[in-house]
Amino acid sequence: MSSMLAEPSMLASSATPFAEVVEPDVSALVTEDDTPLDNFPSEKQQRLLTESLYSSWLGPPPSQEGEPRSYLAAANVGLFASPKEPPLVPDVLLSLDVALHEAWWQKEHRSYFFWEFGKPPDVVIEIVSNREGDELGTKRRRYAWMRVAYYVVWDPAGHLGGPALRAFELRGHTYAPMEKAWFEAAALGLCAWEGVYEGRRDRWLRWHTADGGLVPTGAERAERERERAERERERAEREQARAARLVAQLRALGIEPDDSDT
Hints:
Layout lengths: L39 H17 L14 E5 L3 E2 L11 E5 L10 H4 L1 E2 H4 L5 E5 L10 H8 L4 E5 L10 E7 L2 E4 L4 E2 L4 E10 L2 E9 L9 H35 L10
């Protein structure tokens, strides 16, 4: 997706950019450019990452008071840290403790405006489909300027060389590489997975939980439920068959069983 990669004029500022802005006029901002998706693999990967969370994830760990916490997962939504700087459009974002506005069709609520949500996303993910995105250069610097806590680059086709999965953690004003793509505040991680998604076998980027289990898609959850129901049906049939054999054995001995015997 187009990300308008001009270097931010406030890159050296120590203040968070959105803290200086209070409900600016967004009428002149270009929030949607209707640019089509680059390719089918990227579109499927984006949907896998967002749909699995909404289908199966219970959300980040509860608050200290035990209250559930909200989150927002989205694909191809512009991040506006300041009305004076061009946005970035990550392939996928995850933001904790935020919620969409009820009037989400209004322009001032249709994009991820930092001054509205009060914080940057916690995780942004870029899916590499060519060598033109500069994911390890300008984009990485701009996400650091935006104060995004975790930046992930997924390069399954090897356009950038090196590992397919790279994860970075914000330390100070720059990103430091992470050994594992694990995000403690969300109690979620990312990993490479070989398997079939929507009929396509490939290497995919998947969310996982602390025990290493993948966050399942809706289809995977439905299949697991179907298998569970099938196992339960088979167990019930075995119990019925066992009871019938016991009745037959008792009758062969001249004993008429009552309900308590079976």
